[in-house]
Structures are given as C-alpha cells and as structure tokens.
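Box 3.1. Reading complex inputs
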Amino acid sequence: MTKINLWKEAKTSLFIALWFVILTFPIMVIKVNTIDDIVEWRWVRILFVGIGAFFFSAAYRYMLYRRKTGARRESKTRVLKIHRLGINTALDAAFFSQKKVALPGILFIAIAIILFPFITSMYQTNIISTALLSVMLGMGLNIVVGLGGMLHLGYIAFYAVGAYTYALLNYHFGVNFWVALPLGGLFSMIFGILLGIPVLRLKGDYLAIVTLGFGEIIRIVLENWNEFSFGPSGIANIPRPGFFGVKLSIQHASIFTYFILVALVVFTIFIVSRLKNSRLGRAWEAMREDDIACEAMGVDITKAKMTAFALGAFWAGLAGVVFASKTTFINPASFTMWESIVVLCIVVLGGMGSLGGVVIGALLIVLLPEYLRAFSEYRMLLFGAVLVVMMIFRPEGLIRARRHVFTFEHGENKSEAEK
Amino acid sequence: MRRGRIFLILLIVFLTLGMVSCKKKDSDTIKIGVAGAHSGDLASYGLPTVKAAELVVKDANANGGILGRQVELVIEDDVCKPEVATNTASKLVGEKVVGVIGHICSGATKAALGIYKDSNIFAISPSATNPPLTQSGDYPNFFRTIASDDAQARLEVDFALDTLGFTKIAVLHDKGDYGKGLAEFAKGFLEKDDRAEVVLYEGVTPGAVDYTAVINKIEASGAQAIIFGGYHPEASKIVGQMRKAGMDTVFISDDGVKDDTFIKVAGEYAEGVYATGPKDTTNNPLAKKAIKEHQDTYGEDPGAFYLNAYAATLAVLNAIEAAGATDYDAVTNALRTEWVETPLGKIRFDEKGDAIGIGFSMYQVRNGAYVEIK
Amino acid sequence: MKLDFFLGLLLGGLTRGSIYALLALGYTMVYGIIQLINFAHGEIYMIGAFTALIVAGVLTLSGMPTLAIFAIALVVAVVYAMGYGYTIEKMAYKPLRQAPRLSVLISAIGMSMFLQNYVLLAQTSDFQPFPALIPEFAFLEPYRKIISSSQLFILITTAIVMVLLTILIRYTRTGKAMRATSQDKTMAMLVGINVNKVISTTFIIGSGTAALGGLLISSHIGQINFYIGFIAGIKAFVAAVLGGIGSIPGAVLGSFVLGMTESFGTGLVSSDYEDVFAFVFLILILIFRPEGLLGRSTKQKV
C-alpha cells in the first residue's frame, strides 16, 4: 500500500462493477407480474448500476486506502497528542465538566439555543425538540450500553411506560404534566428494576435478547389490553404542558416544549457527567471492560447493574412523559423494537460512553432523515447506507469517549497515563 | 482537539441547515399538502393517494388552475407514526398550505389534527376510519371520504345475520388501530344480538410466518363465518391457508380487503369472499377516467384508497373554487354545502366531517372480481 | 382436545420451526465465528424469495413444467442469496474486523435498512403473489386439514439440509476449519487456516439456507413483500439464542421449541399474546439456563 496504481485500481473497480451488475440484475431489471404473466425488462437500470458501482467502489477503495495510511500516521503522532491533552476546547470543557471552562464558547452556544425557536419556524422547533428527546433517550441508554457495557434492545419500553403513565393518569385523574413528569420517571425506574432482576445472570447477547423480549412484551400488552391502555387506537388529546395555567397557542406551546426539553437535557448532561466521574460511574466502566476482574476488585456487580438499568429507565420515563405531551396522541405503534434500535444507533454512532457523542448522534439520526425529506423515497435507503459508511470510517463513533487522564502535578516526574 | 472541532462543525452545519431550509419563498400558487406513509412498511397504503392527488391536480392545472391560480402539492411523508406526523404537520403549516389530503393512518391523523386545528387548516383523509375522528367533535377541521369503522362493522354484522343467517361467528383482527377497532365494533354488535354468538375473538400477528395455528383454532371453534378487521395481506394469507386446508368458512371483511390487490394475491382462494366497500361506481365515468389515467401514467392498476383520495382531492379543489377564496371558514363551509361529482358518486360532507353520498355495500368476489350484492 | 386439532398445531409448530431453523442456522454460524448479530440476515431471506419469484415469473412464460421451474428457481435463488451474503460481508463487515462489536452491529442494521429499501424501490411496496411452486401430493388429500403438501415438503427439506450441514461441519476440511476458527481465531490463523475465507464460507452457507427458507415459506403462504425478512429474522435470532447461540444443533432445537411454543400458545390460549408466550418462555429458559438450551457454559479463567 504505498502508491495507488491507477490502472490496476480501475481494473478492480471495473470487476466490482461487473459483479454488482450481475448481482443486482434480477431485482433491478426484471419485474414480474405473476397474475397476468407479464414480465417487464428495465434494461437501462443496468447501466446506472454499472456506472454507479464503478465510481462508488473506486471512491470506497480510495477511502479505505486513506483510512489505512491515515491510521498509520495517527499512530506516529500519538506521543505528541498525549502531551496536548491538557488543552481543551470550550466544548470539551462544557461536556466533560473539566475545570477550565471557556466562557465565550458556552455563551455562544447558549445564546444560539435560546434564540433558535424565535428566529426559525415551528417546524424547525419541533424537529429540534424531537432531536432533544432523542438526546435524552440516548443519554439514558448510554448509561446502560455505553458505560455499563450491557447491550439493551428493549429500551423503548421504558419510554412507553413514561408516555402511558402521563396519558393514563391524565385521562383518569386529570393529573397535569408537572406532576406526571417525576411519576413517569419513577414508574419507569420500577420497571427497570423489575427487568434488572431476571437479567442479572445473563451476559452479552443473551442479555440483548431478553431485553428485546421485554420491550416486545410491554408493547404487545399495550396493544392487547384494551381495558387498560385503549389498545392500538391509542389515547388522544393529551394536554401539552401548561404554563402557569395560561392557555398557549400551538406555536407557543411548541416553543415552551422546546425549552422544557433544553432544560431537561442540560439537567441530564449535568447528572450523567457527574455520575460518570463518581464511584458508581467508575464501577460501570470497570464492569464494561471486564466484569470478572471488576468483581474481583470488590465492586458489587449486582448493584452496579441494577443501578445502571434503573437510572437508564428513569431518563427514558422522563422523555416518555414529554413525548406524550408533545405529540398529544400515543399508541403502541410508536414503541416498536425499531425505535429501540434507533436509540442504540444514536449511542453507537455518536461514540459509546461519550456525552458529546450522544448529542451529535441524536442530532444526526433524527435530523438526517428530516433533512433528507427532499430525497423522499430514497431517504431510508440513503440513511441505511450512511450508517454503514459511518461505521466503516469511524467505528468508534463520531466522538470517541474520553478516558480519564490523571496527572501528577508535583515534581519533574510529570507522568501522564491513560487509564 | 479534533473531537471538539468535529462537534463544532456538525453543530454549525445543523444550525445553518435549519436556518436556510426555513426560508420561505412566497408564490401565488394554492398549496395543498399531501401527507401519509410514503416509505416504510405501510408505503403501499400511502403512495396511491399521492398519485391520485398528482393526477387530479395535473388535470386542474392544465385547465387553468383554480381561481386562476395554479395548484401546488406539498408532499410529506409521515411513515404512519404519530410522532413523525406532528413534524410533518408543522412543516405543512410552515409551508402555508390551505388544506391537507391525508393522513393515511388514524393514529397519525389524530396527532396531526391538533396542529392543523390551531393553524386553521383542514384535513381530508381518504383512509382514516377511526370513529372518534368525526364523532367525538374534537376535530372540526377533519373530513373523510371513507366510511367509519362502526358503519362498516354494522353492515358486516347485519349481512352475516340477516342475509346469510349465521349463528356462529368468529371475529378476527390484525391488532392494528384500524383492524382491531373494527373488530371491537363487530363483536359488540354481535353480542347485543342474540341470534348469533361470537365463538372466537382473536388478533393475528401481522407478518407472522404462517397462520396454521389460528386456522386450526377457527376449525375447532366450529365457526360458520369469520368477520375480519384488517388489511388485505393478512386476509389473503388466512383465506389462502383456510382454503388449502379444505375449509369453506365464509370470510367477511372490510374495505381494507376490498382492494383488487387482495384478489390478485389470493388468486383462486379469493372466490366467495365478502367485503364491504363504497357503493359500486364502476359505471361512474369519473371512476373510469381516474383508473384509466392511473393505468396510462403508471402502467399498472391503482392501489389502496386511490379512488377515495381522488374524490378527496376533487372535493378540495371544488370547495376552493366554490368558495372563491382559500380561507379556512369559506372552504370548510363549501366542503359542507357544495355537492361535488367524484369517482365515489356525488358527495358533500356533514357537520361532523363524514361524507354524505358515499353509499356502502357488500361485495363478493365472483370470477375474480368484486361484485356488488344488491 | 381433539386429535386433529392437536396434530394440526403440532405440525404447524414444526413448519414454523423449520423456517426459523433455516434462518437461525445462518445467525448462529455467523455468530459462532465473528460474534456478530447479523441483522441483515433476514433481508437475505427476503431477497432469496424475491429472486425466486422473479425467476419463476420469467420461466412461467416459457411454459415449463412446475417442477422444473421450482428446481431452477430454487437453485438461482440460493446462488444469488449466497452472492448477496458474500458481498455484504465484504462490504459492511470485513472493514470492521478490528472495530468494537457494537459498531459492526450498527453496520448490520444499516445494511438491513439499505437492502429493504433497495428491494422496495427496485420492485414494489405492494404484496406480490407468490406462485405455488411446491406441487400438491395426491396421497395427502385426505389429511389436508392436518398437513398440507407444502408443509410436508418444508419439513423434509429442512431435515435434509440439517443432515447435510452436520456432515459438512463434522467431516469435511471446511467444517473443521470453521470449528477451529470459532474456537480461537488467532490460533486458527497460526495453524494456517485462512480465516477470511472461512468467514466468507460461513456467510455463503448461511445465506443459502436462508434463501431456501424464504423460497419455501413464500410458496407455502403465497405472498411476499420487502418487509418479510425483518420479523422472520428477529424470530430466528430469538431461536438461535434460545438454543444457545453459536451452537448449530442448538439453533435447530431452539427453532422447533419456539415454533411449538407459538403454535400451542396460539391454539390453547390466544394468538393475541403469541409473541409474549415466545418471549416469556425464552426469558424463563434463560433464567434457568443462561447459556441457552444447548449452549456450552464457558468457564472463564481469570
């Protein structure tokens, strides 16, 4: 891998293009109608596939080549980088609660966030609110997956618990949003503990499948138990959050929801970043790296797992309550396994265990399909492709989780080590 | 360092994208939204509506537009999910549409209607059949060109009891908001009537690999007929497997099944299946025209709810024309008062938003086509 | 309970189980070797079914006998699915060999979305009728309330595939290499096994059986669309874990247990909670046997 031999590369790409032409031939070209026995041949598509595959494979191979050489270069500069770790950008400081806080950066972001709903449309405010909801979900799941290292595929069930808590309490007892918010979190947490009990002994993918099953069970029960949850037709007319009894217009209500979400996200970031650096957080991270060694060091694994599940569920519950008030209508169809997978994508895409990463991941996952609306029917195709490509070129996520760096300040022997 | 930079760049990209894409361009076209599932697993129920709206609007624009202005469609996907539908709705509000044709699923429609109501935009759905949409009075801005679930269930039950005279009936559904809602009504009506008993009430899992177990259960229950609430893919699987097993239990279903795709997919097994649907309008010149247009443009037969959507679009354009303006009160008033010729017959809407003039009948598949039973 | 009813449920459960098994094999083999939950596996099953539909549609025009069409469609579908499996591995998983496991999982999810939408756009979003390629056996006519010919065919085919696969894994060089790789990749490399080739072979075999499952069930049910792979894939994954992921006999056993649970759960209680039975049963088994039914309980040395 020293120099790119253009001719050879072209030949390889040509070969790959040919391979794709053959591979996609039946599905791309032929369309059959088995009732009337009509077969449609759409030959021109083969041309698109061929040309497309040629250029994509060329680009892809070039990128892979770059990645390889890039990786080599990076390893050379590693030594240098360690020394520069002390300097932090404003954002790093903000998100990783370092001592040196760069005020201007934070101020800029804060002003942008506050002004945003007033200078853009309701649509923008709404989709950013959706993204913020996903940030909360991502933060919660990040505790379980990113910090605790447990693959959780049924996370959306807790979101459902939160949403239904508010919807049902409001429907039956007229409970308002502000009372329901902590209750939703609490109920969710109880469910988290209930789930935690059977899964304590399980590891890895066994855990994944049990959580997946748990998520599906909750959804199916909501779907079938009409007397309790109104079944698939769902609950409509859930009130939006009230503002000291003032009736807000829809425009203002969506702005208000936006600010509630901003506040909750800031709260979440604060708590989770504190937790991360606490005794418990270190126990989680140790558990993620090696649970046996971790237990041997005297960490109570049972407690660590339980708290991870319970806290993760708590945030999903909070987010669920806001979700119900934001859409004003909920039914079980919003809580499918697919949504759990989307939240997982947020955590992994952003960078496992990294808070800034979760924020970026959520923005990407929620906003990308929204902005891809222009491509209408191709958007999910593109979205799938983007996921694959991102993972290939940034397998650690967009923002790599920062490991703690402990520095001894005394004496000449200034040593730095990555934990 | 690098991490911070990426973060900052992405944040800026998003913010600018947000600001740029919200710039509205003003034009003097009349904008009408079309919302529904255009991607994902329910796309086949949403896409025919887009095609219908496009064809109608193309015609109208070719004839000089409405009120001398061209009509522009704003097509937005909601994947049939309530949470996406609220975004879709606020996007359409931002686009300043006059009205919306959609949404497709009842749940998504409910979520979106709240937003339309506050912004004085009406919605006219070709397929959302959930009764509370019109009957609860919560949504004065909602109209539909399809009968509500309870009306259909009533017809199915009456037909099974009065015309066919069955005494043992199984009620099945697909666990969806449409299918289960309908099945609940059918079960309720049957239980009130002492001529027949419900021998089985079950939800089948949509997309399950096969339905052998449910079929065995129907067989064991001794049901003479099945009333099924749901869409045609499940219906054709159940019917096909039943007939293959040599069961001749009568199958009665709804307008989610009264779709030519059902006959195509179920093939010979479709023979004899009953389904409710809008009154036969195959002799209606507009229906003929609508179907022919679709065949000419897309080279295939139209999909689900195509005629309903065609009728909805015609009703909207007609109401704007009749009202002579595009403001909410005038247009909704016109929708309620002005009769309009559609492929479903001559219709207008009542106070609640249900269409008057769309008759409902029972159909049966005979020789590979739905035939109205008089 | 009448005997007919019981037998019907039993055979229905076995049929379901067979289809799950054909899919679960691919999951479990891939998992055994690279510890990846291959979410795109269900899509291979769907693509296999679509390829078969297309081939059958084209051949029907030429007026071939059904049996010949069936044979050709089967071969083409299996070969194409193998091609897709191979390509997916090379494109979406191979560059991620050194990456964290969850990243590969996300890549697989992305691939699954991509393939679904690829078929949706290139073909149609509607359900397509699938021709009944499996012939009706006359001798089954009196028993058709209990078992249909396509069910019988599915059961027999699955059994044959299982036997062939067992022979392949137990007695051939390739099988040996696969077993070695699944035990210890580094060690396998050291003894001269081409690990990349083994991984490719695994994907190819798994994709082949998945396509076979797709073709058989579509012919039995009579319709397909682009979305059939997702749910079937999840169920097969559950079956694989139930049996002990990474274990081939486990995947087969898990599939049949899952199929039976669903069938009898529906038959004796209600199909409203069909999936709940499956998952509750799974959770119960995993509580008492955390490694699945036939999974090896690995003693970890510290």
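In summary: Confidence is low (pLDDT under 50) at residues 22-26 of chain B.
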